[in-house]
Design goal:
The complex is a heterodimer of chains A (319) and B (286). With 319 residues, chain A is α/β, with parallel strands linked by helices. Chain A is built from 12 helices and 14 strands. The relative contact order of chain A is 0.13. Chain B has a single domain, classed as Rossmann fold, CATH 3.40.50. Helices cover 43% and strands 12% of the residues of chain B. Chain B is built from 10 helices and 7 strands. Classes of the chains: A alpha/beta (319), B alpha/beta (286). Chains A and B meet through helix 3 and helix 5 of A and helix 5 and helix 6 of B.
């Protein structure tokens, strides 16, 4: 990481570009509209391919079933709305119509995390990873920036065969990953190497983790930063290496600490290589209204909070 | 698939299917007898007359699709598929057993020929059918999509989301069939949660609504014929049926929604089926 000022782009922009690119490459791609088409960035596709844009109104459960019917007849449907609706309102429909049928349906979860801001708790999806990753056949992606969102969206559409859930945020965030960096679904990225501890983050929190690592370095603590952009299937090898080689793990996510990235990592660690671990996320509570940066501060999702928690973790379990 | 047009042959076929439903459920030891028997005539009319399908080529792309939204009446779907030649009739006796392709509610992952989708969580099938019908329109394909719905199932909100979307997209290639037996697990549909006025509801949602006696092949086939003339609207057929049809001692008794006969009842039930068949054939001759 350096001092270069990054462009600020919402991850949903990457998703929307990815859908457009995949749609140009594969004629089977169709997009379902749930009223907030522009808000989730799918207006790009709808404007370019109006005949392959299916407007369904504010009826997410029906949209998931229709996506299943389209997939059963050879289409690759992309359904996206706010994650609280696309993943949580529709969980039974995703479970039976999509996952049990093992259909290649792309489900986009927009406005995920607490950084949605002023809309408040109803619109801040903080349980979607937990629910989506518990469903058999489902792949769960959580890109860290717009570039990665674009690349992973294209891969989800062009390479996956079963259901895929992709999570992205509302706020413009630094677009920092190099598009030449290897992006493989199921393979985490080590963005910075280190030996004394590992921070494993997902989504917008990856940038925070890099900032935290920089502060820690100034204090003489050398940490590894891992971008876990695929929550399922989780990269067991990368987690086990981090545990073995650095001895401490800290997970960071804009999501409940129960059932999300931290839980997924803990499941791997306890089985393969137990080491001291801590989890940063929402502590079993709902969010609230506020500016994104105020909320991240209040709920301990900042670089400084990561620094403090990591130092505490190391001090609590001296080698 | 060679069509059966003769009403007497259709009637006999439907009673062979009923007998298989009864036997497979007895062997399974659990399952839903009443609704399965009530739909035997509709399923016979579909698979032996109305549907454009090839049992020897279950994945034929141009086939009409049948979506069973009420997954719990899987026994009548399985029996009809077996009698149509999708798989061996003996396999019906693996129903609900470990490692069987005949799951308690249809599971597409088991690759049973003729199963279009998994189902069993009520309310979801019509949406899937809408998706397939939209797909046919996008690809300018001629296949049609049939969705079998329960009357109690219409209490699910998703059904009406799907109904609205089918009319909005002018899916005249979609036919929903409502199994209107008036009963659900807790009792009469009118006591549990009233769904009338049913035809008017569907019409208000932009559908063409037809009604028929779900045990009268002439009426069923006429309704299918009328459905073909729809130019821009989806069609719903409200089929008035009798839960448990064919075994008169259990007819119209909601307690038989999810029950199977005991060993002592089987012989009697088989006799009742034979007797009802004779009466139906006689009625036809008169």
């Amino acid at each position: 990481m350096d001092e270069i000022i990054r462009d600020l782009i919402p991850t949903k922009t990457g998703f929307s570009e990815g859908v457009l690119i995949a749609g140009a490459q594969n004629d089977s791609v169709v997009v379902l509209g749930s009223d907030i088409t522009t808000s989730v960035g799918l207006n790009l596709f709808a404007n370019k391919y109006p005949e392959k844009f299916i407007s369904l109104g504010i009826a997410e459960q029906n949209a998931v079933g229709i996506a299943a019917g389209l997939a059963l007849t050879g289409k690759i449907p992309v359904f996206a709305t706010y994650a609280v609706f696309s993943a949580l309102r529709t969980t039974d429909q995703i479970r039976i119509s999509v996952c049990y049928n093992n259909l290649h349906v792309i489900i986009g979860g927009a406005h995920a995390g607490i950084s949605v801001g002023p809309d408040g708790a109803t619109h801040q999806a903080l349980e979607d990873i937990a629910v989506m990753r518990s469903l058999p056949n489902m792949t769960v992606l959580s890109p860290c920036d717009a570039t990665q969102a674009r690349i992973l969206t294209i891969k989800a559409i062009m390479e996956c065969r079963g259901p895929v859930y992709i999570r992205f945020g509302r706020e413009a965030v630094p677009d920092f990953t190099d598009e030449n960096l290897k992006n493989s679904i199921g393979k985490a990225q080590v963005l910075q190497d280190g030996r004394q501890a590992s921070i494993i983050a997902t989504g917008h929190m990856v940038w925070m983790a890099l900032k935290a690592a920089r502060i820690l370095k100034l204090e003489g603590i050398d940490v590894r930063v891992i971008n876990m952009h695929t929550i399922k299937p989780i990269d067991i090898e990368c987690i086990v290496s981090a545990a073995r080689e650095t001895g401490y793990l800290l997970s960071v996510e804009e999501h409940q600490i129960y059932g999300g990235l931290g839980s997924a990592i803990a499941e791997v660690v306890v089985k393969h290589y137990p080491v001291p671990m801590d989890m940063i996320g929402m502590n079993d509570c709902f969010g609230e209204s506020g500016k994104p940066e105020e909320l991240l501060e209040k709920y301990g999702l900042t670089a400084n909070a990561i620094v403090t928690r990591l130092k505490n973790l190391i001090h609590s379990f001296p080698r | 698939m060679n069509k059966i047009n003769n009403i007497e042959s259709l009637t006999e076929t439907s009673y062979r299917i009923r007998m298989s439903v009864l036997k497979s459920l007895v062997k399974a030891g659990s399952g839903h007898l009443g609704g399965s028997l009530g739909l035997a005539d509709i399923f016979t009319a579909l698979y032996f007359n109305e549907l454009n399908h090839k049992p020897e080529e279950p994945n034929w792309e141009e086939r009409d699709r049948l979506i069973l939204s009420i997954g719990h009446v899987a026994p009548v779907l399985y029996a009809t598929l077996a009698h149509s030649g999708y798989f061996n009739i003996d396999e019906l006796y693996t129903l609900r057993k470990l490692n069987s392709r005949l799951q308690g509610h249809p599971g597409r992952d088991k690759n049973l020929p003729g199963i279009e989708t998994s189902s069993g969580s009520l309310g979801q099938g019509l949406s899937i059918a809408v998706g397939m019908a939209i797909s046919a329109k996008l690809d300018r394909k001629a296949f049609r999509v049939f969705a079998i719905l329960g009357d109690g199932e219409l209490q699910e909100g998703q059904i009406w989301e799907a109904a609205m979307s089918a009319a909005h997209h002018q899916l005249n290639n979609l036919i929903a069939i409502v199994d209107r037996n008036g009963l659900q697990i807790d009792g009469k549909t009118s006591d549990v949660m009233e769904i009338e006025p049913l035809s008017k509801k569907w019409q208000a949602f932009g559908w063409t609504a037809l009604e028929c006696n779900g045990h009268n092949f002439t009426e069923i086939l006429n309704a299918f014929e009328t459905a073909k003339s729809s130019t821009d609207r989806p069609v719903v057929m409200i089929a008035h049926t009798v839960m448990g049809k064919g075994i008169f001692s259990i007819e119209n008794n909601h307690l038989w929604h999810g029950r199977v006969p005991t060993i002592n009842e089987i012989a009697d039930f088989q006799c009742q089926l034979d007797e009802t068949l004779k009466i139906e054939i006689m009625k036809h001759h008169n």
